[in-house]
TrEMBL record:
Pfam families: CBS, MgtE_N, PRC, SH3_actinomycetes
Protein name, as recorded: Magnesium transporter MgtE N-terminal domain-containing protein
Highest taxon, organism lineage: Bacteria
InterPro entries: CBS_dom, CBS_dom_sf, Mg_transptr_MgtE_intracell_dom, MgtE_N_sf, MgtE_transporter, PRC-brl_dom, PRC_barrel-like_sf, SH3_actinomycetes
Alphabetical UniProt keywords: CBS domain
């Protein structure tokens, strides 16, 4: 095993077991801070295993580590990583952090990489920093290695800017970004949330556990929180609002745009675990006179999930929920099999009965499974379409509350 290596060289490396089978990829390094007089110790690696899950691999399980590959014992605990105590993530929290140099505190220095060295006890610790250094009011930047003893230790106030963290994850999907944020401390999570655009934060919140959603939303300014709720899917926004105190619910609903608040309020009125409480209130809805070409244009919209795009519901006007009388459904396969000028009224499926908005979740689940469907139309007592239960809506409610986050290591 190499006795010295830079963290930047490890990021993205494959991790193998002793037989050469790939276990995952290094996404970050975990260090334990031991105060201002002792270098932080490397306790393990954050490894992304198949399924995009990030797990902790302690250094006691690492048998070889250099700039080409990492080899472990092959025994990996697949429980989800969560930081403990004074742990820090090197790439997520140390890179770009500002440090103060002992020789000249007026200089501005930022960490660009971290040098790790193995001690006589075979432990790994931070030995030096590759830093970008500039003088006050100077545009010139000098980059050099700075030993741990040459710096005044940093504090959380000198942490990596949230913008830098987001730039490092600019290509990440919402669920991957949610994973990365979950691994941070409460204060840091809020800093990142504050720096996000409303639509990005809405997508990420929907991928976090309920408690973390409430924590982040509750600490945002009410006006910002209302804007984020407007960007969320109405059913997810309703679920989140139901976790808040009554006075918070009312304040945020009053701050939301009336049309957005109306859809959310409708969902909040239903009893828990009914079709009405879990449905999507804005499925694709067209009149029977609409053509196949028009329907195809609607299901191509990027903001639709695959489950929502799989079905077009045919109703009498008005075409916003609650609609006029529900007539039938046209599945995407039917759209692909008919000519563009064909009217939906002539090809819709009228055999399958919609479910009532008061139908229990268990019944909805059985119907989706029995008929191999991706969604079900939901109607009220008057036969008006009020929404659709999609397979992803149902899964969200069938899985355990903490399904997005496995148990801590």
């Amino acid at each position: 095993m190499s006795s010295k290596i830079f963290a930047g060289r490890l990021l993205g490396l494959d991790v193998f077991d002793p037989l050469g089978d790939r276990l995952g990829r290094v996404r970050d390094l975990v260090v334990h801070e031991q105060g201002i007089h002792s270098p932080p110790q490397l306790t393990g690696l954050l490894v992304e295993v198949p399924g995009k899950k990030r797990v902790f691999v302690p250094m006691t399980r690492i048998t070889s580590m250099d700039s080409r590959q990492v080899i472990s014992t092959g025994l990996i605990n697949l429980r989800r990583f969560a930081k403990r105590g004074s742990e820090k993530l090197v790439a997520a929290e140390l890179f770009d952090r500002r440090i103060t140099l002992r020789e000249d505190p007026t200089l501005t220095a930022h960490i660009e990489d971290v040098g790790l060295a193995q001690t006589t006890r075979s432990d790994w610790q931070i030995a030096e920093f590759y830093a970008a250094i500039s003088a006050p009011k100077s545009r010139s930047v000098t980059r050099k290695l700075v030993s741990f003893d040459e710096i005044r230790w940093y504090s959380d106030e000198l942490a990596q800017p949230a913008s830098r963290f987001l730039a490092q994850h600019q290509d990440a999907k919402a669920t991957e970004l949610a994973d990365a944020i979950y691994e941070l401390g409460e204060k840091r999570r809020l800093e990142i949330a504050e720096a996000m655009q409303d639509d990005q934060l809405a997508d990420v919140l929907q991928e976090l556990p309920d408690d973390d959603q409430v924590e982040i939303l509750s600490q945002l300014a009410p006006e910002r929180a209302a804007d984020v709720l407007e960007e969320m899917d109405p059913d997810d926004a309703a679920d989140l609002l139901n976790e808040l105190a009554d006075h918070q619910q009312q304040e945020l609903l009053n701050l939301m745009e009336p049309d957005e608040a109306k859809d959310v309020l409708r969902l909040m009125e239903y009893d828990e675990n009914t079709a009405g409480s879990i449905m999507t209130p804005v499925p694709v809805i067209l009149s029977p006179e609409a053509t196949v070409a028009e329907a195809m244009a609607h299901v191509r919209k990027e903001d639709l999930t695959p489950a929502q795009a799989a079905s077009v519901y045919v109703c009498r006007p008005p075409l916003e929920t609650p609609t006029g009388r529900y007539l039938g459904v046209v599945h995407i396969q039917q759209l692909l099999r008919h000519a563009p000028p064909e009217q939906l009224g002539s090809i819709m499926d009228t055999d399958f009965e919609p479910v009532s908005d008061q139908t229990e979740l268990a019944v909805v689940t059985r119907l989706l499974a029995a008929y191999n469907l991706t969604s079900l139309p939901v109607v009220n007592d008057s036969g008006r379409l009020v929404g659709a239960c999609t397979v992803d809506d149902v899964l969200d409610h069938l899985l355990p509350d903490d399904w997005r986050v496995a148990h801590n290591r």
